[in-house]
Amino acid sequence: MDNTPNTTLDPSTPAAAGGLLAGKVAFITGAGRGIGAAAARLFAREGARVLLAARTEAELKAVTEEVRAAGGTADHVVCDLADAASVRAAVDRAVELYGRLDVAFNNGATGQQPGPMDQLPEADFDHVYAVNLRGPWLAMNAEIAAIRATAGTGAIVNNTSVGSLSGNPELPAYGAAKRAVNSLTESAAITYGPEGIRVNAIAPGATLTEMIREWEAKSPGVVERITSHAPLRRAADPDEIAQAAAWLLSDRASYVTGVVLPVDGGARA
Question: Which one of the listed residues 98, 129, 174, 255 is annotated catalytic?
Fold first, then answer.
């Protein structure tokens, strides 16, 4: 089987030749804000036609219009990662709009109330599991089917967390779900690599998103404490995380699969 990267450019794509993702169709979850919104802007600048997915339509619409105003090709679809039918319909929408799916960035997630695991209500644990683990599993299944049926080869990146790489007593359910996504990533890389579908993950450190601002509000000083242990001594901008995802999705990373890449300012060095 020929599983070399598909680099054929679609002549209808308005992107300039040579962009990191030129000619590709990209599906992004959690794209209404934070890292997902940064990824939508970046992927479009790098030549992809993008479909943005999230639960809040107003946020999706705003980012979509921003991408279009900058000359990119974008659309959006409301998607609840905890709902299997919603996830499948969102991925199918990318194929309906653009005729194919090449790459996907599974970024969407939900947080948890910080604190010891025995203080987390069962319903909250179930919600974190449904969105942060079952959601990426559903998305990968739909994305692999769409890539296989259209582009043939492609790439997927899952967004986990540096907090998944060791014990996480402050966010135990969040960290556990993200660690499980790391395992799913590695398993998928082994399973679908022979078909030419690469699957990787990024594990961001502290990043200036609404989620970490909410954590800071509940646990004042947590951002300073986290960043003080990173050699770069600062939190990341969402675009810096999106850049790592873009590279892993691009053909420049054509021999990279099964990797969980920390993007953490050196925190785990």
Answer: 174
User: Can 174 be counted among the known catalytic residues?
Assistant: yes
**Residue 1 pairs with which residues in a beta bridge?**
none
Q: Which CATH number belongs to the domain containing residue 133 in this structure?
A: 3.40.50.720
Task: Report yes or no: 26 and 48 within 8 Å, Cβ to Cβ.
Answer: yes
For residue 93, give its domain range.
25-261
Q: From first to last of its 269 residues, what are the pLDDT tens digits of the chain?
A: 444 444 333 433 344 467 999 999 999 999 999 999 999 999 999 999 999 999 999 999 999 999 999 999 999 999 999 999 999 999 999 999 999 999 999 999 999 989 999 999 999 999 999 999 999 999 999 999 999 999 999 999 999 999 899 999 989 999 999 999 999 999 999 999 999 999 999 999 988 888 878 878 888 888 888 888 889 999 899 999 999 999 999 999 999 999 999 999 998 88
Using DSSP's 3-state secondary structure scheme, residue 243 falls into helix
User: Does some domain include residue 3?
Assistant: no
Instruction: Give how many domains the chain has, as a whole number.
Output: 1
Is residue 6 one of the residues assigned to a domain? Answer: no
Is 241:202 a contact under the CB 8 Å cutoff? yes
SS3 content of the chain, % helix, strand, coil (to 5): 50, 15, 35
What is the per-residue burial (b if ≥16 Cβ within 10 Å, else e) of 35-51?
bbbbbbbbbbbbbbbbb
